[in-house]
Give the backbone structure.
Amino acid sequence: MSGPIPAFPAGFRWGVSTSAHQIEGAVETRERSVWDAFSDRPGRVRDGSTAAVACDHCRRYREDVALLAGLGVDAYRFSVSWPRVNSPGGLDFYDRLTDELCAAGVRPVPTLFHWDLPLGLDWRQRATADRFAGYVARVADRLGDRVGSWITLNEPAEHTLLGHALGVHAPGERLLFDALPVAHHQLLAHGLAVRALRAAGATGIGIANSHGPTWPASEQPADREAADLYDTLLNRMFADPLLLGRYPDGVGELMPGDVDADLEVIAEPLDFYGVNYYAPARVGAPDGTDQFGAELPFSRREIPGRPVTDSGWPVVPKALTELLTGFRARYGDRLPPIVITENGCAYDGLDDQARIAYLDGHLRALHEALTAGVDVRGYFVWSLLDNFEWAEGYAHRFGLVHVDFTTQRRTPKASYRWFREVLREQR
Ligand code: FCB
């Protein structure tokens, strides 16, 4: 950290992100999702917890919107729970939340799918994509008069890999490469959702994809090949169809259905491209050490000399600059303006100086990407609140605001006050 963070352009959007399943609670007022069923299976969530109460946000959303207003963000990225929308009165909740945000001067940025698929639906089925578009149309019809920016899906790559290929997230399938249709159907669902949103008059549409540079563990051909495969599966397989209208070499022929016709839907023009960035990956040939299993065709390695967060992710701010300049080089004029839709870290404690250092470093790295000519329009911290961190349960705290999960008391951390100051200086 050295001196104030450089000034971002006028009109740059500052925000924070959350997702429905991770904060809402109130499970009794909605249908069940794949995550409820997964969490009920012993041993699946590390601390045996579920999201039945989480941050009790459905009841406490007014207090949470007041925290957003106190922070001074322009925008709030939350997700709409499809199982809740399927339930009586479900859309009313998002209606009230949207009104509360607008009244507080905070722009609502809903994500329409953040991993909590209604139980009974399955991304291996193409019909799920059509169902998704129908649900999106209902949400747009209800909230479209107040929502200026929409995000279709959150991280289809992670949902495919962790949930369907490796089985460590819901729905807990270990399909390995047979999970590829799950990726294709989510991308198709995205394209159909873009069309449904356009039909409802939307002019600010994006997706939130997780990306990070992939570094080969060595210059050996086996390591380079493994890293290239990893990069294809995590980065290019999701960005290329959206931005170039094609799959990386060798991937399209593994996908189901009339892939060329689907790609036309998938490549519907976007108004912004959301990037969730946490860390780069260093990848080599399989060496039997990967925590997700020896049969994988690659293995992730430590990045030497880098501190790690409580979730074990290395802190490498400059990799964000590399990622964004690399995107610009690969996609050129096909790349719409970028918004960083998630960036953050897990650290314990109220005096979270390590989180401040992480965010400070990443904002400087982001500014460098702007200086290098990448068109970035916004930055959202993950997350407003400590919350249900998927298979890690409540152990990893990503919030700017501490949540006591026994009393539901919210306490702003040092990072909340720091970010509030950054936002003041930027205005
Ligand atoms: C991302 C997810 C988000 C949160 C962060 C830490 O992959 O989109 O829900 O869990 O990681």
The longest strand covers residues 107-113.
